[in-house]
Amino acid sequence: MDGAGATGMPVEHRSTRSTCCYCGVGCGVVIHSERDARGRESITAVEGDPDHPANAGRLCSKGLALADSARSLHGRVLRPELRTHRDQPRRPVDWGLALDTVADRLSRIVERHGPDAVAFYLSGQLLTEDYYVFNKLAKGLLRTNNIDTNSRLCMSSAVTGYRLAFGADGPPTCYDDLDHAKTVLFAGSNAAYAHPVLFRRLEDAKARDPGVRWIVVDPRRTDTAAMADLHLAIQPGTDVALLNGMLHHLVWEGLLDQDFIDAHTTGFAGLKALLRDYTPRMSAEICGVPAQDLVTAAEWFGRSPAALSLYCMGLNQSAHGTDKNLALIHLHLATRQLGRPGAGPFSLTGQPNAMGGREVGGMATMLAAHREIGDAAHRAEVETLWRLAPGTLSPTPGLAAVDLFEALHGGKVKAVWIACTNPAHSMPDIGRVREALQRAEYVIVQEAFAGTDTVPFADALLPAATWGEKDGTVTNSERRISRVRAAVAPPGQARPDWWIAREVARRIEARLATPGAAPLFEADAPEPIFDEHRALTVGRDLDIGGLDYARLERDGPQQWPFRAGHATGEARRYADGLFATPDARARFHVTPYKPVAEQTSARFPLRLLTGRLRDQWHGMSRTGRVPQLFAHSPEPGLRMHPDDAARRGLAAGTLVRIASKRGELVLPLELSDEVGSGTVFAAMHWSGQHLSSGGINEVSLPSVDARSRQPELKHAAVRVERAEFGWHLLAARRGDALALHAAVQPLLRDCGYAALSLQPDSAADASDGQAWVVLRAAADAPPPAAWRSTLESALALAPGPDILEYRDARRGLLKRVAWRSAHAADFIDGLLWADTQPGGDALLRAALAGGPWQGPRLAAFSASAVLARDPVVCVCRQVTESAIRAAVHGGADVPALKTQLGCGTVCGSCLPQLARLARESTHA
C-alpha cells in the first residue's frame, strides 16, 4: 500500500507477519513498516497477529513496544571492527578483512592447540537456522563440541528432567491445556511477569470456570502468587521436599493410578521407599509452610480431573534443578496427569528459541535432533547426513557454559565466539567471567547492539541483523515452529547470524581443504538450511519430515512431531502411554531433598533471590531502549522485609551494600513484605549499562547441577549493610534518550554507586519523541572536575541561557535547573542536584510529571519536600497507582478500573496488579 509521508514524498507501507523475539510463548506479530522514495526503511508499529495460535492477537507490554525499540539506530553495531592488540581500540574494517581475520585466527589456534581450544557461546534468541550453521561449524568442521548457549542458564534442567523421565526432550503438553486444566500448579514461575500472554489465557479460563484452582509454589508473594487459591511460600530451594511430601500423601491416600504405573513406568518402588521419610509434617517443616496446606495442594492435584504444572526458572536455576523437575514430573506420572487435555508437566521456555537450539543440537552435551554425543550410532548418523568421514565427530561432550568460561579463565580454551548474548552480565560470578574474557587469546562478539557489557572485550566485533531484519524459524514452548520474517533490511553492514557463521566456515573449510571432501556449507538462504535440519530429524522423536517452509507459509505455525504424510503435528505427547525410552516406559527416579548450594552463615545471613521485572527483558539491550518500559520499575533496588530493615536501622531509599563470598554491589533499598524475613530479592536485568556495577550477578553463585550443568542463579548467601557516601548527585535531562544515555554511561564506573534509567516524557506538548534520562550517583567525595565537566556537557547542564543555578561552595551544594518555554509557560527541561545528602527528588517528580511550572522559576530551588513516588502500574496508558487506589476507594472493581481509567485494556500485563490493588483496598 502506498501513501505520502510527512514530507509529501511517496511512501510504501507494508505489513509483515513474524514472531516476537522475547519469551518462549512465541507470539505472532504483524510488523508495519514503510519505505520512502529514497529507499529508507523503518518499522513503524507492531500489533499481535490474530491468526497466530500462540497468542490470537494478544501481546504483552514488551511485545507492544517492539517498534519503539527498533525506531532508532543509535547504539546499533553497523560495521565490522577489529583490533590487533588488546590494549588498542578496535577500528572499522570491511567484511572481507573481518571474515578473513576471524577465520585465520581460529584456524591457527586449532592448529596450535587442537579443536577444543575454541569454544562458541550462543543464544536462545538466535533463529534455528542460525543455530544450525554454528552447530555444523563447531562440531562438523572444527570437530569440537565446545558449543553451548545461554539456554544452559535457564532450561537445561528441564531438558534433563524430561529426558530422564520420558526418554526425550520436549513438553508433552500444549497451550490448549491452559483452557482445560482444573488445577494449575505454578512451581517457580511468576507467569504474570514472565509469560503474561499465557497468563491472560489462564485468567480467562478461571473466569469461565471459577472452580479452577491455582496453587503457586514460590518463596515470594509475586503477582502470580497473590492471585492463587493457595500460595505455598516455601523456604528457598526446598521444592523437592514439598513435592516429595505431596506424593507421599497421594501414596498414603491411594490417589495413584497404579495400573498406569505398573504398565507404563519403571522405578516407582525405589522412589516409594524414599517417600516413606517425607511425611507431610516433616516436609512442611523443611519448607516452612503449614502441613495442612501441603496436604490441600496434594489433594487438589491428585483428585483433579486435569492437573497442569507450569514451571520455569524457580525450579531450573538450582544446583539440584534436575531433581526438582523430576519430583514434579513424578506427581504427573504417579497419577497419570498427562497425555490428556488440561494435564501434564509443562516447562515454560524462557527464550524465544531455546527449544530450536536444542533441536539442532546447539548445546555442548547433545547432537542434532536430540541425539547423544556419546552414542557411536548417533554420531555415525550425523556424519552420514553431513557427508563427513567416519569418526569425524568428537565423542567427548563439550564444555557447558560455566565450565566453558572457567576453561577460558584457566587458558584451556583460547578463543571464544559469542553470538547474540551477554555473558559479562548474565553468567554467575561475573567478576570471574570478566577476568576470563580479559585473559582470552581471542574474543569474537557477534552482536546487534553496541551497548552490552560483553562488547568491550571483543577483539572482533561483527554486526548482526536483529529482530525485524531476519528470516528463519523459531520453536516455542509448546513445540510449535513459527516463521520469522524480515520487515526491513538490516542497517549499515549488519548481516544475518547464519550468514556470518557460514562465511567464516567457508574460509576455514577452504584452508583445511581435505581432498574429495563434500562441501559442508552450500546452503545460501534460511530455507535450505531448514531443509538440512529437518532431514536430520526424520525417524527421531522430534520428526519434522513432513514440515517445510511451504507448509508454514500455507498453513501457519505447526507443532512437532510432524511426520511425512501427516496433515498436522502432534499437540500432546504420550497419550498412548508409550514413551521415548528403549522399553517405552517412563522412568521414576529417587529424588532426595538437598539444600541450596550455599547456606547462610553469621557472615552472610540473608538469602538472595533473583527474578524478573514485568516490563524488562534479560539484559535490557532491547527493552532498555524504550523509556515507557521503565515506568513500572524505573530504578534498580534490593527488596527487603520491613522488619529486617528496621532491625538494621535501614529506611526505604537507603543505599545498601550487598556482598557475598564472590563480590559486592550497591543498590537502593526497597521495603516489601512480598519477601519473607531473612530473604532479599533483586531483579536480574540491570547491567553495567545502567549501573556502576555489573548487576546482581556480581554476587551470584557458579555452583551447577551435576547432570544438567545449570547454575544456581536463584540463590546465594549475602549480607546487607548501609553504604555510606559523602557526595550524592541527581541529574536528569529531556532529549534524545538513547544519545544522552550513551554519553553518560561511561561515567558510571567512576562512582561508588550510579544508576542510569530512561523515563517517558509526560509533558502535554510531548509530541517530539523526547524522553528523560535520569542519573543517580554517589561517591565518597565529589568526583574530579573533568568528570563533572563531562557530565554537564553530556546533559547540556553547564551554566548558560535558560539554566538557573544556586551554589553554596562551603556546603558542597549545587542546584541547576534547565528551562523550556512553550505555550506561554515554563517547563523543567533538566536538573542537576549535588549535595552531601541525597536530594532533588521532589523537583525530579515535578519535571517528570510534565506539567507547566507554577510560580517563579526560583521557587524550584525550594522544592525540597520528600514526595513518595507514584508508581506507574499500567505502562500502556500511563496510569499511576494513586489514580487506581482513588478509583478503588470510590468503589471501582477491575472492570470499572478498565472502563474509568483505561488501565488493563491494551496488553493486560497490569491486570494481576490491578486485581491485587483492588483486593488490598477492599480489605483495608
Q: What's this model, at a glance?
A:
The chain contains 31 helices and 35 strands.
Percent of residues in helical segments? 25-40%
Taking the alpha carbons of the first and last residues, their distance comes to 55 Å
Structural class: alpha/beta
Query: What's the assembly state of these chains?
Result: single chain
- Backbone CA Rg: 28 Å
CATH topology of the largest domain: Rossmann fold
Strand order of the largest sheet: 6-5-17-16-15-7-8
The low-pLDDT segments are none
Report the principal-axis shape.
globular
Number of discrete helical segments: 31
Number of strands: 35
CATH class of the largest domain: Alpha Beta
How many domains make up the coordinates?
A: 6
Q: How can the largest sheet be summarized?
A: 7 strands, mixed
Approximately what portion of the residues adopt beta-strand conformation? 15-25%
- CATH architecture heading of the largest domain: 3-Layer(aba) Sandwich
What does this structure look like?
The protein is an alpha/beta fold. The protein has six domains: 2-70, Phosphorylase Kinase, domain 1 (2-Layer Sandwich), CATH 3.30.200.210; 81-152 and 354-475 and 483-525, Rossmann fold, CATH 3.40.50.740; 156-347, Dimethylsulfoxide Reductase, domain 2 (3-Layer(aba) Sandwich); 606-722, Beta Barrel (Barwin-like endoglucanases), CATH 2.40.40.20; 727-862, no CATH class; 872-923, BFD-like [2Fe-2S]-binding domain (Arc Repressor Mutant, subunit A). The chain is 31% helix and 20% strand. The protein contains 31 helices and 35 strands. The strands form eight sheets. Strands 6-5-17-16-15-7-8 form a seven-stranded mixed sheet, with helices on both faces. A six-stranded mixed barrel has the order 22-26-23-25-24-27. It is globular, with a radius of gyration of 28 Å. The two termini are 55 Å apart.
